[in-house]
Write a structure and sequence with these properties.
Layout lengths: L8 H11 L4 H22 L11 H6 L3
């Protein structure tokens, strides 16, 4: 997707410097991926203690040995 946006020059310079990425496009894409990952974790966290699970952890751990 192509889009024209205005981004603070200092912010972009800092993002490129700390990330080691070469292009502005790479920095923006990496930032969007991180946003999706972090927000996804927040959504998953909201399910904590709300889902029913049935299983036997002892039996499951035997499979790992």
């Amino acid at each position: 997707m192509r889009i024209n946006i205005v981004i603070d020059d200092d912010l972009m310079e800092s993002a490129l410097k700390v990330s080691g990425l070469k292009t502005k496009e790479d920095a923006i894409e990496e930032g969007l991926k991180l946003l999706v990952q972090v927000r996804g974790q927040i959504i998953i966290k909201d399910f904590w203690g709300k889902l029913k699970w049935s299983g036997n952890l002892a039996d499951m751990s035997k499979d790992r040995q």
